[in-house]
Design goal:
Length: 108
């Protein structure tokens, strides 16, 4: 399992990122990969419903970021797909609240 560092994760971005609609599904069946992600990588968040509201594709068309919803509306398990290979590159927990200081505003 490849838990991506921040640098590895950011390397799969090429602006502008485009939200992907229901255009036939992902290039890679990523659910078997998700089932093998160690529990510790979820950092206590529950993504077990298997709900995906957002998929983003980088400007080159190579990478897709599949955001799996958690029990917190600002936290997602992101699975990064390489559409050209096609393979799962890895995963990273994305906590938008922590990134943008939303937690501090909610408590203050």
């Amino acid at each position: 399992m490849a838990r991506l560092s921040e640098a590895e994760f950011l390397a799969t971005f090429a602006a502008p990122m485009q939200r992907v609609g229901d255009d036939g599904g992902p290039a890679v069946d990523f659910w078997p990969y998700v089932e093998r992600i160690p529990a510790a990588d979820f950092e206590g968040h529950d993504c077990s419903k298997g709900s995906v509201r957002y998929v983003w594709r980088d400007a080159t068309g190579r990478y897709e970021h599949v955001l799996i919803d958690s029990d917190d509306r600002d936290v997602f398990m992101v699975v990064v797909l390489d559409r050209l290979a096609p393979v799962v590159i890895g995963h990273r927990l994305l906590d938008l609240g922590a990134m943008y200081g939303l937690e501090d505003e909610a408590s203050g």
